[in-house]
Structures
1.
Amino acid sequence: MEDKIKKKYCPMTETTFYTLLALLSPNHGYGIMKFVLELTDERVRMGTGTLYTMLGRLVEDQMIQVMSEEDGKKTYQITELGETLLNMEQERIKKQCENGERILGDHNEKN
Amino acid sequence: MKKTKLFLSILKERDWLESMARQGYMLEDITFGINYKFKEVEPVEKVFEIERFSLSSSGDASKQELTARKTAFDIATQTGWEVITHDESMNYYFAKDRAGDETDELYEDVESRQVRADRFRRTYTLETPQMLLSLLLIVAVIYIALFFIIGNKPGELVVWMGIFIGLTVIEVGISFFQMKAGELMYKELMLSREEWEQRKKYGVKKSFKKVADLKAFLQEQDEKGLAYKGNVDGYMLFEESTIHYRYYADTLTALKKRLKKSGKSFKKETKDWENNSTLWHEQSMDEAQKLGLNVVCSVESGTIIYRRDAGLPEVIWDNDAIKTGSGDITAKLYTTFGPILIIAFIVGFVLGFMSQMG
C-alpha cells in the first residue's frame, strides 16, 4: 500500500469513517447522508458540499468507486483498498478506546 | 427585471441575492458577471451559494477537479439545492429553500471549505510561465502597434516612452488588483454563515489617529458589552461578554521612553531590517504580565493591546503609549520610512549627477 494513502487515512476523520461505513453496500449521495444521520442519532450531519468534496477525494484515492449512474445520480461502493483501510481504522479506534478507558478510567476513579 | 451590479465580495453578493428573493425576485441568469436577470415570483426565503468549477489556467487538473462539477450537481440536487445559472467565470449559483438549520450551510468543515476557496483563488494567481508569456505577448503587440502609429520620429520618442510606462503600470496594477480580489474571495469563502453573520454584526473597520482614540473606542465597545477579540482581515472583531475590561496599550516609542527613565536603552536587533521581529513586543509583554495585564493582540504591529478585568484597580502604565500615533508612526519614521527616504534621495542624486555628466 502506498505510504501516502496510509498517512492520509490513518487515522481518518470521523466523516470519512462513516462515509466508508455507509458504502460497504452500494449507495448514493442522499442515502449516505441518511445512513450516517440515523446511525449516529443525528450527531454526525454531513454538509452537502462536504460530502461531494469528500466523494471526489475518495474516488481519486481509489477508496470508493462509481458502480452505476442514472440520470446524473451516481451510485458508489467501497473498494478493496477502502475496506482494508476501514478495518485498520477500526482496529486503531479500538486500541485508542482501550487506552482511554484504562488511563482516563483510573484517573476518574481516583478523583 | 434586470439589474447591473458589481460585487467584489462574494458574501455580499450572496446576501443581496437572498434579499432579492425575499422581495419576490428570483435569480434567473447572469451575464458578464455583473448583469443580473430576475423573474418575478412570490416572496420566498432562499439560501444561495456560489461555487466555481473552472480549470486552473495551467490546464493541469486532477481527477477530482475534472469530476467536481458533475459530482456537485449530483449530490446538491439530491439534497434540495437547485442549479440556477452560471456566469462566464464558471461561477455556479445554487439555491435552496431556507431551512433555518445546519442544512443551509453547504460546508460544515474547514477542510472542504478550503478546497472550494482554493478553486476561486487560483484563477487569479499568475500560475504558469504560459500565463506570463501570454500577458507579455499582449503587451508586445500593443507596443508594436503604437510604434507604427506614432512612427519613427525621435521627438515623439518621449511620448512613446510615456505610453510604454503608463501601459506597464496599468497592466501590473490590474494583475495586482485581481490577485487581491482572489485573496479576498478566499478569505470570505473560509467563513461559515454564522461567522459571516458575526462579522457583519460585530466586526468594525475603523482607523484611529492616536492610540488614545483607539483606547477610547475599545472602552466604548466595552460599555456596550462587547469585548475585543483581535483583528482579522482588516476587521476589528468583538464578541458579547458579560465580563468588563479596562484596555491598555503599548508602543515601541513608549517602551523606549520607559527604559530611558530607568537608565536602560532598547537594543534593536541588527538583523531586523524590516521590523518583523517580536523583540520589543516580548519585552512589553514581560512588563505587562508583571502588572497583571493580558495580551489581546497587536494592531498594525505598532500597538499592542492589553486588557484586565475592570473589577481590578486601574494600572498607570500607558500614558506615553496613548499619546503616540496609531500604528506608532514615530517609530516607523525612524526605522522604516527614514532609511527608505534617505536611500531614495541618494539614488536620485546619483542618477541626476550621472545624467549631467553624460
2.
Amino acid sequence: MVPTAYYIILSGLLFTTGVVGVLVRRNPIIMFMSIELMLNSANLAFVTFARHYRSLDGQVSVFIVMAVVAAEVAVGLAIIVAIFRTKATIDVDELNLMKW
Amino acid sequence: MAELIIFVVLGAVAVGAGIAVVAARNPVHSALFLVVNFFCLAALFLVLSAEFVAVLQVLVYAGAIMVLFLFVIMLLNVGGVLESLRDPLGSQRWLALLLGLGLVAEVTAMVISGAVKLPAPSGGIPAGFGSPSEVGLHLYSRYLFPFEVVSLLLLVAMVGVVVLNKRRD
C-alpha cells in the first residue's frame, strides 16, 4: 500500500503549481483554473486522510467542497463576463478603478 | 507494488498537466490540461477507495465546471496575441517560480522528516467504504446541517449570477 506521506507530497506539489499559477499569470480565467488546482489538491489530501483514518468524514468534506467550488466558479465567471462587457479587457493589471 | 506504479504514473501525469495549465499560452489548452488533471485525480480517488467521490469528480468538476470555463473562454475570446506582448511582471516571474520551489521543498521536508506523527492506520478498510450508500448515510445523518447550508449557498449563487448579468434597462 502506498504510504499516506506520498499522497500528501503529491497534494503539496499540485498546490504549489496552483499558487505559482495565480502569481505568474495575469489572465483571470487562468488564475481561476489555478485556484481549481489548489482546491483539488486539498480534495486529494482530504480523501487520503479519509482512507488513513478509515473515516468517511474526509469524503463528505470533499462533497461539500465540490459544491462550494461550483458556486464559486459560477459567480466568479459571471463577474468576469460582467467586467468584460463594460471594459472589453480582462487583464487584471488594468482593472484598477478601485485603487486609491 | 502495482499500486505504487499506478500512483507514480497518475501523479506524474497530474503534475505535468498542472504545470501545463499554468504554462500554456492558449486558455483553451489550459482548460483541456486541467480536465486531464481532474481525470488523473479521479483515478487516484479510485485507488484510495473513494468511488463515489471519484465519480463526482468526473461529473461535477470535469463535466460541469470545466464546461462552464470553456463556455466563458469561447464567449470572451480571450488569449489573443495581445495578451503576451506586455509583461508587467518582469523579474517577479522568476521570483515566483523560485518561491514556489521553496514551498515544494518545505512541504516535502515536513512530510519526510516525520515531524507530524500520524497514528498508524487501524485494521483493513471496511467493506463498502467509499460507496454511495455509506457516504450518503454520513451525509444525511452527521452532516445534515452543512448539506442544507450548501444547498442554500448554491441557490444564492444562482440568484447572484442571474442578477449580475441582467440588462440594465
3.
Amino acid sequence: MMRRTALLLLLCLAACHAKPPPQPAPRHLRRINGQIGGTFKQLSDAGRFATVVPGDWTTDHFSAGGERLELGFKDSNHQDHIIELLIDEPRTGQADGRGRIFFYRFVRGSEGEPNAKALLAAAGLIDQATPPEALFSVEVEAEPSTPIVVAPPIVEVGDRSPMEAKTISKTTALAIAVGESLIVLLAILLGVLAPLRQRRGESQ
Amino acid sequence: MLLFAAVLWNLTRTLGTSPGIWVDTLIENLFVEDCLLHSKCTAVGAGATIGIFHSAGYFHWRSLLEWVGWRADGTYHVLLVINALGVVLVALTARRIGGRTAGAIAAVLMSVCVGVPTQLDVISDVVPMPFLGAVFTLLALSSITHPSLAMTATLGLVCGVTANCYATGLLLGVSTVVVGLMQPRGRWRHALVGAIASAASSFAISPFTWIVDARIVLTRTVSNANAMSFNPAYRIPLVVMTGVAIALWIAASFLGAHRRPLNVMAAIVLPMFLPLILGSAVGRLDPQPKYLAHVLGAACVCLAVPSADALRWLWQRIPAQAAWRMFDASAPYAGALIIAAQLTSTFNPVRDTDMPPLQYADVAAAERYLANERGWNWTRAARNLRAPDEVVRRAAIRWVPDWPTTGEDDNAERATLLKISSLRVPRPLPPSVKEVLTTNGNSTLVGTSCSWLDWRHFRACTKDSEAGPETCVDSGLPADRDGHSDYAAVLAGLPGLNVRHSILTLHFPLQPKASCPESWFHMPRLPGVCEGRIVSVDGQDATIEAEGRWARLKSEGTPPHEISMQWEIGGPKCQVEYRGFPPFFVEGDATTAAFLATIIERQSDAR
C-alpha cells in the first residue's frame, strides 16, 4: 500500500509539475493588401480560370478582406461553387488544400471530385499569381486598422528611372533659387536703367 | 507706380488674395515639402503633359519662398506682385518705342492677358512666366538700343531662368540669338555670347532636367495630342491676339515704322507662336494659352505700338493738334484708370460665378472653425471632411498646416464644405451650418452633422459591365500623413486611375444611434461630380426615392444596417476626372442634408 501511495504521489507530483503542452507561437496578424483584386481581374481577363474549371462555370465574385479571400463561380444551373483562400490555417477544422501562400477551404459546391478539383485549381491560380509582397506582417493591433493603401515613392503616375528621381540638397536648391532671383533683379535693373546709363555716359 | 498700383488693385479684386485650390498646386507642395523637410529637392522637376520633365528651377524658388515664411497666401501675393510688375515693364517697353499712348495701350492689353488664362488664379509654374517674359522683353529692347555684351549675356541668363520655370521658356534661347544678330556691330559675337549664356544657364540651373529630357526626346515622340481637351488654335483668344500682333508687326515692317524694336518683339513671339500653330495644325499639339505666357508682353507691345501710331495719325487729321499732346500725356493715367476700374476684367472672368472655385482661404477658414469650435483633429478631417471636389479635401488636410494632431477621433460626425454665391444662400442658416467666410460676394459654408457611416469601413465592388463578374474588397479611408499617397494609388478595391469604364458599388454598414435618429442620403447632380444612385438599403429599394437620388432612413423600429450606392465611372453621367476616391454624395441628419441638397440643387439649376 505504501508503494501504491508513493506511486500515486509521484504521479501527482509529475502531473503538477508537468510542463503544459506547447502553445502555438503567437501569430502575427497578416492583412491582405486590397490590391489583390487586381490579381483576380488579370487572371479573369486573361481567361485563365476557364482553363481549369468546367466549361459551364462563370466567375461570379471575388472578395478580399481581413485574412481571407473568397472566389466564387456559378454553373449553368445557377449553383454556387465557392472556395476560401486563407492566410493562416483554419482555426476550426482542417484545410482542404494548400498552396504556396494560402490555405484553401471549400465553402460551397465542392461535392464530387470534378468540382473539388476545379475549385482547388482555380484557387491555385490565385495563389501562384499573388506576389509575396502582397502579404505582410503587422503586429496585432488593439484598434481596427484601415486597409493599407499602396503609397508610391514618387508623386506622378508611373515609375521614375533613377536619373528622373534624382534629388539635390536643400542648401543647393535654395542657393540656386537665390541665384535665379538675383539674375532677374539684375535684368530688371539693366533694362530699366539702360537709358540713364547711356545719358550719363554721353554727359561724361 | 500708379500703373503698378492700378494693376495690383485689378488683380486682387478680380482674382482675390488667396490662391485657388488646384491639384497641380498640391503636387507642387509635395515637391517643396520633400525639399524643405527631407532635403530631397527634385533635380529634374515635374512631368509635363507632353512627356518631358521641367520646372525644377521653379520648385527651388517656391521652396525659397516657403523657407522664408511665405506660405500659401504669401506665395500667391508674390505672384500677384511680380505679374503687376510685369505689366509695368511691358508698358515701359512699349513707351520707349512708341510713346506714352503705346505704353498705356500695352498696359491695358497686358492686364487683360494676365489672369485666368495664365493661371494667375492658382499657384503654378506657369504663373511667373508673363513676368519673366516681360523682363526678357524689356532687356531685349535695351540690348538693341543700348548694346553691350553684358546686356546680351544677361539676356541669355534670363532665358535660362525662364526655361527652368516652364519648358517653353527654352525657346527664348532662339530669341536671344536672333536679338544678338540684330546688333548693329559685332552681331556674331553677340549671338555667340547669347547662345552660350542661354545654354549654360539653362543647363547649370538644372542639368539633370536637360539630360533626362534629351534622352526622352531622342528615344520617343513627345506630344500632348492626347490631352483631355483639344481646342483649335483659332478659338483661343490669346492665340488670336498674338496672331493679330504678328500681323501688325508685318504691316509695320512694310511701313518702316519702329522696324528694329518691333523686330525684337517678333523675335520673342515667333519662336513660340509658329511651332504652336504648326503643331496644332498637324494635330500633334493641343494649343493651350499657357504656352504663350512668356511672349504675351512682346505681343502686347507689337499690338500697342502700331495702334498708338494709328491713333496719332488719325488724331493729326483733327485741326486741334495740341489735343494730341494732351491726349498722349494723359494716356498713362487713362490706362491706369481703365485697369483699376476693372473694365478689363470683363475679358478675364473668374471661371464660374455660379460655382465659385474654392480658395486656400476657404479651406483655412474651414479648418479654423472645425479645429477651434468643434474640436476636430487632422485624422478626423482626413476621413470626415467632404466637398464635391476631392481635391478640396486633400488641400484641407495637406495644405493647411494648423490642424491639431491630438484629440478624439470621432468618425461619426461629418463636415461638408461648399462655396456658393451669397445671394443663393437660404437664410437663416440652420444651426448645423456655419458661414465660415464671405469674399467677393461668395459664401463658404461648412455643414456638420452626425452620420450613420463610418468611412473607415466599407466594401468596394467593381465590375466592367452589368453582366460581368464583380470583385469586392474591404476598404476604407486612410489617414495617411504622407501626401504622396494621394497620387498614383487608389483606395483598396476602387477602380484604377486609368480606368476607362467601371461600375463601382460601395456598400456601407450603417450605425444608427439614438443621438442621430435620422440619416438622409442624397446623390447630387452637379457639374464636376460623378452622378451616382442609391441602389439598395438592406438589399431592397423600398426606401429609395427619386430614382436613386434620395434615401431618408430612420432609426426607430428595425433600423437598416447597410446602404449601397453605385456609380458608373467613365459612363455618360460620369465624365469627370476620377481620382481614385469615392465620388461625392451628401449624408447627414435631416436638417443638414436637406439644406446642403437645396444649395447644390440651386447651383445646378442656375446653370
